[in-house]
Amino acid sequence: MSAESARSAVLFDLDGTLLDTPRAIAEQMSLAVEAVTGVLPDLETARALIGAPLEQMAGALSGTAPDSTTAQRVSADYLTRYRELIVPKAADLLFAGVRGGLERLARSGLALAVVTSKKHHSAELILEAAGIREQFAAVVGADDVVHPKPHRDSADAALAILGFPDAGPSGAVVGDTAADIGLGSAIGTFTVGVTYGVGSTYQIASASADFVAHTFDDVIRAVLLRTGK
Question: Of 53, 58, 95, 186, most Cβ neighbours within 10 A?
Answer without folding.
Answer: 58
